Amino acid sequence: MRALTVTPGIAGSGTLRDVPTPERSPGEVLVRTLAVGICGTDREILEGHYGASIAGHEHLILGHESLGEVIDAPEHGELKPGDLVVGIVRHPDPVPCEACAQGEWDMCRNGRYTEHGIKELDGFCAEYFRMDPHFLVKLDPGLRDAGVLTEPASVVAKAWDHIERIGQRTSSWRPRKVLVTGAGPIGLLASLLARQRNCELHVYDRDQGDAKRRLVSELCGQYHNDSLEAACALGADVIIECTGAAVVMAHVIGNNAPGAIVCLAGLSSGSHRIPYDFARLNRDLVLENDVIFGSVNANRRHYQLAAAALASADRQWLLRLISRRVPLADWHTALEHHPDDIKVVIDFLK
Amino acid sequence: MRALTVTPGIAGSGTLRDVPTPERSPGEVLVRTLAVGICGTDREILEGHYGASIAGHEHLILGHESLGEVIDAPEHGELKPGDLVVGIVRHPDPVPCEACAQGEWDMCRNGRYTEHGIKELDGFCAEYFRMDPHFLVKLDPGLRDAGVLTEPASVVAKAWDHIERIGQRTSSWRPRKVLVTGAGPIGLLASLLARQRNCELHVYDRDQGDAKRRLVSELCGQYHNDSLEAACALGADVIIECTGAAVVMAHVIGNNAPGAIVCLAGLSSGSHRIPYDFARLNRDLVLENDVIFGSVNANRRHYQLAAAALASADRQWLLRLISRRVPLADWHTALEHHPDDIKVVIDFLK
Fold first, then answer.
1. Are B210 and B263 members of one domain?
2. Which of residues 327-346 of B touch A (CB under 8 A)?
3. Going by fewer Cβ within 10 Å, which terminus of chain A is more open, N or C?
4. Are B169 and B290 part of one and the same domain?
5. For residue B306, is it within any domain?
6. Is A170 in CB contact (< 8 Å) with chain B?
7. Residues B48 and B172 in one domain
8. What is the domain count for chain B?
9. Of A259, A266, A283, the CB nearest to B109
10. Is the ipTM of this complex over 0.95?
């Protein structure tokens, strides 16, 4: 079968390669790939900055945002041939830490997890893949091609899960006014989940195009692309930072409502020193009981929350997040930056 | 009766003054003051930087860390003459915000709370005070003069309550290794509560004297006064920052264990700009699911937690936190900085 592989650490080593098709195996599920979403992590791996293959293997099959159809599954299990499924990216180490031992591998404390398409496990960008059913999540069949958004939605479902659990430190808390910074796929899915909670929604992004503005306005949210300061001055009590830009992070953590919860869901790269008044930040955090927290990855429960959130969303809106679909043979065009790109997907049916 | 009063905004205006003794009043509790603790906020008010008197009043009675004995109480209530009590500092506005309406005035969202001895309510540094019984907390009589530590302990009880509630974002969490920065009364009481939770305890303070080191070692904790970097390198999963120093805060938020919860309980003053790598902080927070939060004040539930924590502590250890007791007539000596000072108390029985 064809698979998109990379030699981790070597820039430009991404290539389509023929690899053995996985066989049916008792206790496991064989999945035919329908689509794989491409994100910044894939770009970093293709540029040689990140990623690790299975010990002893030269190549790593890329891809962690999956959508597939079950071809073969263990009898009497939850999954049946024809089911629409998504693979869970992270797996715990066989000798798990306390968090991994309880299925909370997103909170892994010793860093010995593995990740499909990223870290010591082959990814989903191949015509077939085989999985332990515990690491597959069944989707509502009505989602169809929008199901490829489940993995990014799982990241956002975890972020919201933690926002709400942290909010429970007080009995009077509920999320009201939400500011999302960054209107990429993560920011827009975070916005969707904000609206599913009936929050007033504000989205900040520097993009001047129409696509993102329209997607936000279809959620009855307000799109702000003029000034971050003005967006922060609205006094959101939940801020979900999805740009990963150090200057945006530095601003939002100190400019929000009393009792605000700031979730950092975007990842910064490199180094970015900013002169910053920590005495002022201290007073803002302490006197207003504010919280800042980081969130990464997702466990099975979050994938299930994501699948439910997507199933109850407007499918047409979800499909508009997928700005381009390219056939596997043209995988390299998926990495190009086109204006109005949001989520680009490799479509295995094309 | 004698009371220590100040004219808010005027440095050096602190003075002992004769004021009318409060009368017995139906539905209210009359309390004879036994002791009042002095803290940094009192100093700021006496220096004219902070504080507000009741509308229309020139003077504010100082003091918010109280200990008293009930003289008169409504019949059939919880409190009886002779009971040891502490007054709750913050009161909600008559038109409360959502948090205040649920008794969570420590999370007040509109800033319209009042505070005894600080903001628009007379304090406890007078021979008698009168209170609504709902704002008095009954102490274990065995605590006796150590009960004056209840108010600072309530601040710490809230901090720990929020640490534990935030920790519940994952089912596998429990506090293990705790680093407390700053071994003043707040830091030492936070340390006591860490040990009551069976945590490994590390305390960082620059003080080279013996008193703080001994108090920490009596809790079976380790005292570090050499290097903050070395203390942070121990990888605490709970950090309680009690110095309010911007440089300490800036260091601890980026140097801790995966999944760490950093509670800021110390308040910075002024302005302190530090060049800081926010890209690195972002990665530390996001990839490790870290939390930073601020905590201020305490509600009735936290006072009750504090009273229980003090009642189950070693009373001799608690009394060693009180480094000096001065009579009301010598109140100004309570403000002096003596070596080995921890908590200085104005003793109304002296």
1. yes
2. none
3. C
4. yes
5. no
6. yes
7. no
8. 2
9. A259
10. yes
Q: Looking at the structure, tell me whether residues B187 and B261 fall in a common domain.
A: yes
Q: How far apart are CA A257 and CA A224, in angstroms?
A: 18
Chain B partners within 8 Å of A292 (Cβ): 285, 291-293
- Chain A residue numbers with beta carbons less than 8 Å from the beta carbon of B170 are 99, 104, 107
Looking at residue A244, which CATH number applies to its domain? 3.40.50.720
The answer on A330 and A282 residing in a single domain is no
Q: How many CB pairs under 8 A join A and B?
A: 197
List the domain range (segments joined by +) for residue B184: 153-294
- Tokens 């006496």 correspond to what residue? B46
Whether residues A68 and A12 fall in one domain: yes
A159 and A280 in a common domain: yes
The two tokens of residue A138 are 């069944």
Residue A272 distance to chain B (closest CA, Å): 5
Tokens of B329: 């007539």
A105: Cβ–Cβ under 8 A, 6 or more apart, which residues?
A: A90, A91, A92, A96, A99, A113, A297, A299
CA atoms within 13 A on the CB side of A239: 33
A193 CB-near residues (< 8 Å, 6+ apart): A153, A156, A157, A160, A309
**A163 inside domain:** yes
Q: Do A277 and A335 reside in the same domain of the chain? A: no
Q: What is the pLDDT of residues B140-155, one digit of tens each?
A: 999 999 999 999 999 9
Instruction: Give the separation between CA A85 and CA A79, rounded to whole angstroms.
Output: 9
This prediction has a pTM of: 0.97
In chain A, what residues touch B296 (CB-CB under 8 Å)? 286-289
Q: What is the pLDDT of residues A170-199, one digit of tens each?
A: 999 999 999 999 999 999 999 999 999 999
Question: Cβ separation of B111 and A283 shorter than 8 Å?
Answer: no
- Name the residue among A165, A264, A287 with its Cβ closest to that of B285: A264
Looking up residue B57, the CATH number of its domain turns out to be 3.90.180.10
B166:A170 CB<8 A: no
Facing A289 at nearest CB: one of B276, B282, B295: B295
B215 Cβ neighbours under 8 A, 6+ residues apart = B183, B188, B317, B320, B321, B342
